[in-house]
Design goal:
Helices cover 9% and strands 41% of the residues. Helix 1 packs antiparallel against helix 2. The chain is mainly beta. The chain is built from 5 helices and 32 strands. The longest helix has 19 residues.
């Protein structure tokens, strides 16, 4: 093409037609070489580098902005962990003291953590874990406790809603958001007397020692299941601080909360506007019979010919926003269809889970795409365990970041002791890049998952992933290779 352009442009006289042809050919040449070809798309793979064991609590985790430190928590324990190139090391650990339990509770557990933008402190959600309260559905309001880093001194606390389950701090450090699930009675979500969960907005402008908060109610509009009882699960904040998203897992929805550019002083619920997005359903193909390690659900002898079609609600637990805030990605765990016999616009839902991750427009909630059957397909190919009759591999929590110019989603696969890595650069065409085995001894063994990974963070600048494994009290470190 270059030779053709040169021959056309030679000579003393050049007509407008000739110049037009040259311009068109030049533009074609530029476009041809500027568009990435499949061969130019990097191959990104993950390798398990290290597993840190003997942690007292490893339910959820958060990482500092520089990616060099993590806070991991579970039960009444919280730990600070240094992240190396090929190892993890505990710097400090602490136990939650009764003085920081929710008022009226004799037992408590830490359910979610977040680290401030300057890395100086962490916020931990603390929920009532008093058996007497839980048995009578009288869970008391929880707390958010601030810990200094890395020494884990208590800096302050504030009472929030019931059942705080996730905490996020805005990138500008001015506020935090807390998902107060208040899941009082999961066996009867149809009960109109169930309390509704809320989202707390914590004012951090005066520092963690002087926190105040307001609870934001979730409206019923746009919620397909149990609109009287919204249950916020995981909360995330956009990089520009302008909005919050939270999964309403049992409700098969996501709530988007608009945050004013200038926060009022003091905060008021009226300052925040909430819109709910119905996440719809998915039909997939997979193994849907038997419990893990039995019958047709034995990892040592999976039979792909036995796969069946199923339709389930997404009901995501985890959620993450793309770096530019244009879309969000959900980890579609599914949850209570079997217990509460839900249907969606007349379509009965199976108890088998959607077994996928999905992407939605963050402004409108419009569905963009999902991972299809690729997660379960990879689990079956690797002979990893899953609960075939209930949610399959069970995607739990997702983290999104940018590596080598690609937007990636890392997903904790709870029932398979694995992490999947997806390219979500084009959310309408989600591609599975790799599945990383966290527990090699489980392969083909017909045993159930032993780590049950939950918390996960993708450290873009370091090309690493860290995962918390609550069942084993451990953390895993994955290094990413780009080729």
């Amino acid at each position: 093409m270059i030779n053709l352009i040169q021959s056309l442009s030679q000579g003393k006289r050049r007509s407008p037609l000739l110049w037009g042809a040259i311009a068109l050919l030049s533009l074609s040449l530029i476009l041809t070489f500027s568009q990435p070809s499949p061969a130019q798309t990097p191959s990104i793979r993950g390798t398990l580098a290290f597993t840190l064991t003997d942690l007292e609590g490893a339910e959820m985790l958060a990482t500092a902005p520089n990616g060099q430190r993590a806070v991991v928590a579970g039960g009444e324990s919280i730990s600070v962990v240094a992240i190396g190139r090929n190892n993890l090391r505990v710097e400090q650990s602490a136990t939650l003291q009764p003085a920081n339990f929710p008022v009226g509770s004799s037992a408590a557990e830490i359910t979610g953590v977040a680290i401030s933008p300057d890395g100086r402190y962490a916020l931990a959600g603390v929920k009532d874990h008093d058996d007497a309260n839980l048995e009578t559905f009288d869970e008391v309001p929880g707390k958010v406790v601030a810990f200094s880093l890395p020494d884990l001194r208590v800096l302050g606390e504030v009472t929030v809603g019931r059942g705080p389950d996730s905490v996020a701090i805005a990138p500008n450090g001015q506020y935090a958001a807390v998902a107060n699930e208040d899941e009082e009675n999961e066996e009867d979500l149809t009960n109109p007397n169930n309390r509704a969960g809320t989202v707390s907005i914590i004012d951090l402008r005066q520092g963690p020692a002087a926190m105040t908060q307001v609870e934001i109610p979730i409206p019923a509009a746009g919620i397909p299941f149990f609109p009287h009882d919204p249950q916020p699960e995981t909360v995330r904040i956009a990089r520009d601080n302008s909005f919050i998203v939270t999964t309403l897992q049992e409700n098969n929805a996501v709530a988007r909360i608009e945050v004013p550019r200038r926060l009022p002083q003091p905060l008021t619920p009226r300052a925040f506007r909430v819109t709910n997005f119905d996440l719809g359903i998915r039909t997939g193909l997979g193994l849907t019979s038997d419990a893990v390690g039995t019958g047709n659900c034995r990892a040592s002898s999976y039979d792909l010919s036995l796969r069946q079609e199923y339709t389930s609600a997404r009901e995501p637990d985890g959620i993450a926003l793309s770096p530019d805030g244009r879309f969000f990605v959900t980890a579609d765990e599914d949850n209570l269809t079997a217990v509460n016999q839900q249907s969606y616009q007349g379509t009965p839902m199976s108890p088998h889970g959607t077994r996928s991750i999905s992407a939605f427009d963050a402004r409108t909630g419009a569905f963009l795409g999902d991972s299809g059957n690729t997660i379960e397909d990879s689990i079956l190919a690797l002979k990893l365990p899953q609960r075939c009759s209930s949610k399959g591999p069970e995607p739990e929590v997702v983290s999104v970041g940018t590596v080598a110019g690609r937007t990636l989603a890392a997903v904790a696969i709870e029932r398979s002791d694995a992490v999947t890595i997806h390219d979500v650069t084009n959310p309408r065409n989600i591609q599975l890049l790799d599945t990383v085995i966290l527990n090699p001894s489980i392969v083909g063994s017909d045993r159930a998952a032993e780590l049950e990974p939950e918390g996960i963070e993708l450290l873009s600048q370091r090309r690493q992933i860290i995962v918390s494994n609550p069942e084993a009290g451990s953390m895993s470190l994955i290094n990413l290779a780009v080729r």
